[in-house]
Amino acid sequence: MGSRFDATYLSASPCYPNAIAWSEENLLAVGSGHVVTVLNPSSLSGPRGWITLRSRPPVQIGVVKRQDLLAPCLLPTCLTRDTRPCVRSMSWSHQGLAPNSGCLLAVCTIDGNVKLYRAPFCDFRAEWVDVLDISDKLYGYYLSVNFEEILNGSTGHFHKIGGQYQTILSTSAVQDRGFSLQATKKACVKEDLRRVSRDSKNRMDENHDDNSDEDDDDDDSDDDDDDGDANNAENCVQPSENSTTISTELALIPCMFSEGTSVEVLKHESSQRFWINGKIVRISEGKAFVHFAEAIEEQHDGWFSLKFGPDKGKEAASSFNMRPTLDLGRLPNEIYLVEHSKEVMEVLVKGQLVEAWVDNRWIEGAFLGTSDAQLLIDLHGDYGRFILSPENVRLMPIWIPDENSWQITVVKLRKMTTSLHDVPDVKCATGTGRNINQDKRKESSRKRHEENAFPTSLSAEEYVFRSNLLSSLVVSWSPMLHLSTNLGAVAISGFSKTCALLAVGGKCGKISFWRFNEPNSYTVDQCPVSVDATLVGILQAHTSWVTAISWVVLESAPKFLLATGSCDGCVKLWLGDIEGMVTPKEVNDDCVCLLREVIVAAGPVSVLSCVAPSKSPNEILLAVGKGSGLLEVLSCDISSGEIKFNRQFNAHDQVVTGVAWAFDGHCLYSCSQDNSVHCWILQADTLCLVHFPLNSPSLAYDSKRTSSEIPRHIFDSCYGLALSPGNLVLGVVHSVDTALVDPMYESRAQRAAVELIWTGGTCT
Questions:
Q1: pLDDT tens figures, 396-447
Q2: SS3 for 211?
Q3: Separation of alpha carbons 543 and 562, rounded Å
Q4: Residues 6+ positions from 202 with CB-CB distance below 8 Å
Q5: Which of 411, 532, 686, 749 has its CA at a distance of 20 to 30 angstroms from the CA of residue 201?
């Protein structure tokens, strides 16, 4: 190993390969345990940034029946005891994707979650800012298609997501709003809703007309006898052991605005009126700057007036373009239990104005009828008729000028029981009421029922399938992709000719591709900044876990090459069309195709690195690190897919944790969990082991603290390496054997170490 010129300790130890990454803006990210430490290579022991990973509740994908819990496929899930998140994979984007023209850091944890972080450039703190949750977006997509089996195709199938797909709900949104799986799917996929509504439009109208006639008869019978005798028993819903009654309450939401207030902004599109959720960031001179949720990609942050209209009912309400968030008054999902009673028709009258939650916004419409526990809503404008779950509909709020508030009608259901064992009514200080303890128990039971209303019953195999779909293992950023100006698609509004792709590989063998457009402008001001991602495709790359991904953009053609490795030891080379992947127009699904499948030696693939040498534009050099310590190097011809040479080397004694090509493919660096770091020179078709330069240049650092203060004999394992821009410095991260340090003073703060090694002159 070469002589280092700087080193520093870390307070947590890494656990997975590729635990260190070097960005284009000269920052080092080290994933150690539940913390990602961001270092400045010019001063390793100086100020540093942090990313603290936090636990999150499990994703609601369904529940398994008790009798299926002992199924063999559920054994890994039942034995899981990881309660604290840990870094599994990291990747820096190229410079220019962050709002301040910096780099974005993608972090994948062992619980399968992927998030993006940016530097805290406008708020003075050391912790980096979480800007986007990729796992939430992926969950929203699979939820919108109801985890269709069509996406579980054979190996090599690429599923292209059209550019018009914009609505992806987050996990938190689903949990906060209490959507059921069926309701969320219908709220997300507009085309499916229109198709369903067209197919059942006539049937729903007929059913509603029939129900209306029956209700009219009920009204007549009720007028004939208010006492509810036996003659009306067939036409009215009589109290039974589990009858349900409906009631309404009015809630007033004051119309007050301040910085940080969640609001709903009114938008107009021809005859359509809808309200979009946002948040006030700043108020100045009667206007508010509103930041919209990142899931709403079509809307842009901006200033909106806070002026009130005249105090005349509808005129005042119609003059508002902003109101406080009115996330209240959704209809109960069990309203169908009282579907045929007179009470429900008093609350939901045909033609009554309502608001429906569709595409992350409240859209105004009218109620038409009910059938099969669903509501038929006629949305204003060009939306058409929708079939929605009751919990996605609420009665339209009313503006009350005297109270300067919005009035919301809250519909409540109450189950009435007439069991012989019921506690009789008792006298209370405030009047007659039921037993207080019994009411509390019923309220607690109702809350538990509402909290558990989301999960659907699944078989053990279905549960494992969905869990694997959402469990990510590795992330990798592509280089910046540039489209030629003669492409017609670049003229689409909001589309940038420069973008990058983030590849996320998971346990199911699929790789999802996310497009990130280069921002039109950069800022470091105290204003809201957002990062938008669009799911552009899903590739069924392997039949087992995807463990490594590496990118190369080919200069000879507007294409990219993707190398993927899996835990079954298989490595595949994929050729992708840049235009087909990143343009928002609809194209065929063949924009990513299999170039070559490389069957390597047994053992999981731990790391990958590929490069396209400038001297041979049609050649790809690929280095594969295995769990057995084997290092395999091969060359592939892009035009024909032919393997020119394939060599295997017993480079290390334990799992290879890092590989990186340098100097245009002439040099290869590798490291292993056996605590060894090697430098190789590629000569013809073989690798030759060479020594690191013995002397490093004189670099400025504190003379009172030298690298000799960290002895190498305390290093236990090596968990990754990273090359600086220009390939002059190699960063290596080691874990420390805590048994060799002072257990009282050093073991707590000295769990790992980062050292910088000079590599200049290796190939000269």
A1: 888 887 777 888 888 877 655 433 333 333 333 333 333 334 444 445 444 4
A2: helix
A3: 17
A4: none
A5: 411
